[in-house]
Design goal:
Undecaprenyl pyrophosphate synthetase; 239 residues
Length: 239
């Protein structure tokens, strides 16, 4: 499928899982199960249209701290299942498509066994370079900026960096997303029109698109329409 001027890096806020389940009179966390299935579908749509880098906001720091324990445990159960499948099944879509999987966020706040599986998935997929999938877990954008400032402060304090040498390149290097370009397009499903502490520094010149459709119900037609809308925009980067 050929669409001119597709984003190199797409970021997604997959919102609406619980509301979708509630509307269908299912338990709220059932929507998360559908949401996990949608991740693979969306990645396949990205592959078909030529998008190489995708970043998903899978769990915010605020959600980790405020959502019901039963819901968070169900999310962790799904994560264990999907991540172990990457390690064990050569036909998993990550392995078949040679997708390098990376994680960022406050990983230390999630269960130790999942931390270990995350390390193993990153190690297993490190040599893959056809596509890239980044997963923000227990992530908070403001907290990321504070952490970057703290790291730079330590470098200055230890005389490894001069204050006058601090620039965007230095700051970017100390962000958790270091190594990847800033997102060209951020899509949020579910009807809300805000970024909810997602990549506040990196998204400064990102194109934003808000869709009313709940994440599990997003269709390929809607996704293609979003890409076509993006292709028609003129990005001026403040000029």
């Amino acid at each position: 499928m050929k669409i001119k001027n597709v984003p190199q890096h797409l970021a997604v806020i997959p919102d609406g899982n619980r509301r979708c389940a509630s509307r269908l009179m299912e338990k709220p966390w059932k929507g998360h199960e559908w949401g996990f299935l949608k991740l693979e579908k969306l990645f396949n749509w990205c592959r078909e249209t030529g998008i190489k880098i995708v970043t998903f906001y899978t769990l915010s720091l605020e959600n980790l701290q405020s959502r019901p324990k039963e819901e968070i445990e169900f999310l962790f159960l799904l994560a264990r299942k999907e991540l172990n499948n990457i390690l064990e099944d050569k036909d998993n879509f990550v392995n078949k498509n040679r997708i390098r999987v990376s994680f960022f966020g406050n990983i230390h706040l999630i269960p130790k066994d999942i931390q270990e599986v995350i390390k193993n998935v990153e190690k297993k997929t490190k040599s893959y370079s056809d596509y890239f999938c980044n997963l923000a877990v227990a992530y908070g954008g403001r907290q990321e900026i504070i952490s970057a400032c703290r790291n730079i402060g330590f470098l200055v304090q230890s005389k490894k960096l001069r204050p006058e040498d601090i620039d965007e390149k230095i700051f970017r290097h100390n962000l958790q997303t270091n190594g990847f370009p800033y997102p060209d397009l951020i899509i949020r499903t579910g009807g809300e029109k805000r970024l909810s502490n997602f990549l506040p520094f990196q998204s400064t010149y990102s194109e934003l698109m808000f869709l009313d459709t709940f994440w599990p119900e997003l269709t390929k037609k809607e996704f293609i329409a979003a890409l076509k809308d993006y292709a028609q925009r003129q990005r001026r980067f403040g000029k």
